[in-house]
Amino acid sequence: MTRAKGSLALALLLAGCAQGGGGPVSTTRSETLSPAEAEALYQARFERYMGRAPGAGLAGYDTLAPVAGAAHWAAFPKGRGVAPEALAEAKAYAAGANSSAFLVWHAGHMVEEDYFGQTTATSPVVSKSLAKPLATIAVGRAMAMGRIASLDQPMADFITAWKGTPKAAITIRQVLGMRSGLLPQGSSSDPANVLNTSYLHPFHDKVLIEDYPLVDTPGTRYEYSNANGDLVAILIERATGIPYEDFVGREVLARIGARAGQIWMDHSGGTPHSGCCILLPAESYLRLGVLLLDDGVWEGKRLLPAGFVTAMRTPSAQNPHAGLGVYIGSPYVEWRGPANPELTYGRNYHSEPYAAQDLFLFDGNSNQVVYIVPSRRLVVLRTGESPPKEPVWDNAKLPNLILRGLAGT
């Protein structure tokens, strides 16, 4: 493996990282970022993030690296099977909700493919938390390759600095399921706060490993946190010896025929964010949903371990609607979201139960959603900016319109 990282992270990675299928990962680093350069970059990012300097949003992704996709992309065949009036109503709903893309895949065919505004089929769409199910799939791919033993393997087998500390009890399953016990997601105006440094610092991987606090006993409480998602890049790199962006491109996107994209790096030659911040065309996110319809088999080839998707779709006792990187559609609750069920912020409205009991979904900030219904061979995607506040976004409307418009319903 060759990729430059900063000298502060170098010692962490060369300390010896146990793999599921082998010995320590050997790395070579050649590029450094001085402490002064790192601090200047962090402060510039923080000013943008807090809205005190121009360049927030996509422009704030100041260091992007390429992520490969299929060498020869081929479109899904066009098809029918959904009532035209249902498609028209769903498209109109998406169009009125600041959407960039609305896609419907059914039984091997693309039955609706709409782009809005300046977005096209090849436009990069900011993933936000659509990156988290991709990161979970990457873990499954590493397991299938024998580089990770199981979901219940300790993270400390790879992040060896955690051995002999309370964090040694954290498992991969707990990280993917937001039950690691690490500090919940929050906000702070203090540039020294770990919630900011763990996201914006040019050595955010070092912050996550050394500074991010454990506040609950691992496995005892569900608490949403971007830190959990960003730990996956570190895990994948140490388990496989392959840069995360290269692993995702080669072992996930290329294998499902998805288009390429880019990912935000903490600094040039550094570590990418895996809990957010990958940019892919909308159809590439849809393909991730299609992969999960068949328990991780794509065109007859198994990419994920048998039963891995079942594990993704299995909720914990701490949150009946959260699996591993995905959310579970049933049981019905009118208002729910990614945070701990006890909390009221960030909830999405559901006007009615989902029209399929087995529906599960990717659900990112600004209502970036990919609905997956194995029993009906259906995947529905909506990406875009946050919908208008009035009328409130209905998280059940798009999939239910399509489900009821399927032939034979």
Report on this model:
With 409 residues, the protein is of the alpha+beta class. It has a single domain (37-405), classed as DD-peptidase/beta-lactamase superfamily (Beta-lactamase, 3-Layer(aba) Sandwich). The chain has 12 helices and 14 strands. The chain has helices at residues 7-13, 35-49, 84-95, 131-144, 172-176, 194-200, 204-210, 226-240, 244-253, 282-293, 308-312, 397-405; strands at residues 64-67, 99-106, 109-115, 125-126, 261-264, 278-280, 297-298, 301-302, 327-328, 335-336, 348-349, 360-364, 368-373, 378-384. It has a 6-stranded antiparallel β-sheet with strand order 3-2-14-13-12-9, sandwiched between helices. A hairpin with a 4-residue loop joins strand 13 (368-373) and strand 14 (378-384). Helix 3 runs antiparallel to helix 12 (397-405), helix 4 packs parallel to helix 8 and helix 4 (131-144) crosses helix 9 (244-253). The longest helix is centred in the first third of the chain and has 15 residues, at 35-49. The chain is globular and about 60 Å long. 48% of the residues are buried.
